[in-house]
Amino acid sequence: MADAGAGPTFPLGSWPTPLEEAPRLAAAIGLAPGDLWIKRDDLSGLGGGGNKVRKLEWTIGDAIAQGADTVVTTGAPQSNHARLTAAAAARAGLDAVLVLAGRPERAGSGNLALAGLFGARVVWAGDVTHEDLAEAAREVAGDLRAAGAVPALIPFGGSSVLSARGYVECGRELLRQAPDLHDVVVAVGSGGTMAGLVAALGAERVLGVDCGALDDPAPVVAALAAPVGPVAVEAGRLRIRREQVGAGYGELTEPVARALDIAGHTEGIPLDPIYTGRALAGLIAAVADGSVAPGRKTIFLHSGGLPGLFGHPGAVAHAEAGLHAMPPRS
After folding, report:
1. Could you tell me which residues are beta bridge partners of residue 186?
2. Domain locations in the chain?
3. Which residues contact 198 (CB under 8 A, 6 or more apart)?
4. Beta bridge partners of 95
């Protein structure tokens, strides 16, 4: 990955990630054979995989170029970005400090357990807004600087104009793998993944499914896409479905639970309850209302996040409830 004038990158992933046909999933949601393909960015290679790896190649590269010895970032307790920032820092020989919303007693396992294995330190910020969490990270960075460290701040979700370039490259990668693609369906969290895809593919070919991480993702996606794409994109032209948020970011909804089951039962591919589960639920709804139609190649971008399933008690209970026990042997 190289982009003239954008600064150095630090290699972290295994590219290109596979593009796999999903015929049984296609049939289950109302598409025709050959219509549906899965872009396996969950197999990106570092720290359990996921879409954040493409972004971190840019942000870790920038931190190293600044002479940093520590990276500081923010997230929820089950943040995929925080987990992968810890893994990327370990790969690069940097310290990682994760400033997380909430309190220790509310944390589960999943991503947080892996972040511990990767050597991250955690600062708990309590029940705070996004703005307060960002301020807490700045304060932590200031404390580290005062103690003699050289910290670099990585934004919430790893999303910035710089890191969106990782998904510009993914969009170009997809065009090499599937030049006839019509729709790319992707979860929208902090906005950088969709922004890069929009910059590379155009707003008309990218369908984002809001996961509830931002109050309104459209202006954020548009602002991140504009500097890395050939033309500015108006927020109102973006295709973003918002009906899958349900009662809130951390809640497992019935459509998402159904999407988890369908992906697992048809293709043996696990999704997570916050991002990829919502993205597939959004795709199912789009097929039902005709926004995504049979006969056109659709790409479902699997952005990873599996460890988060194991940190979500409701999702674990749902998955375990699906076990079909055989009668005991006499």
Report:
1. 208
2. 19-49+160-321, 52-158
3. 206, 221, 225, 229, 233, 238
4. 70
3-state helix, strand, coil in the chain (%, to 5): 45, 15, 35
pLDDT single digits (tens) 40-72: 999 999 999 999 999 999 999 999 999 999 999
Cα–Cα distance list, 266 to 22, 115, 270, 299, 323 (Å): 8, 31, 10, 16, 15
Q: Give the Å distances, CA to CA, from 213 to 75, 117, 217, 321.
A: 10, 26, 8, 28
The encoded tokens of residue 240 equal 């973003």
Rounded distance, CA 244 to CA 257, Å?
A: 11
Here the tokens at position 263 are 């992906």
199 residue type, one letter: A
Contact (CB, 8 A) for 308 and 107? no
Question: Which parts of the chain register pLDDT below 50?
Answer: 1-5
Q: Is 213 helix (H, G, I), strand (E, B) or coil?
A: coil
pLDDT one-digit tens code per residue, 310-326: 999 999 999 999 887 66
Active-site positions? Answer: 79
Q: Which CATH architecture has domain 19-49+160-321?
A: 3-Layer(aba) Sandwich (3.40)
DSSP 298: E
Fold match, 19-49+160-321 / 52-158: yes
Assigned fold of 52-158: Rossmann fold (3.40.50)
Please tell me whether the overall predicted TM-score, pTM, comes out greater than 0.85 for this model: yes
Question: Which tokens belong to 22?
Answer: 């999903």
- Interatomic CA distance for residues 285 and 181, integer angstroms: 20
Q: Is the dihedral of CA 253, 254, 255, 260 positive or negative?
A: positive
Sheet holding 70-75, edge to edge: 121-124, 95-100, 70-75, 151-153
> Which residues, listed in sequence order, are joined to residue 299 by a DSSP beta bridge?
37, 184
CA dist., res. 306 & res. 42, Å (int)? 8
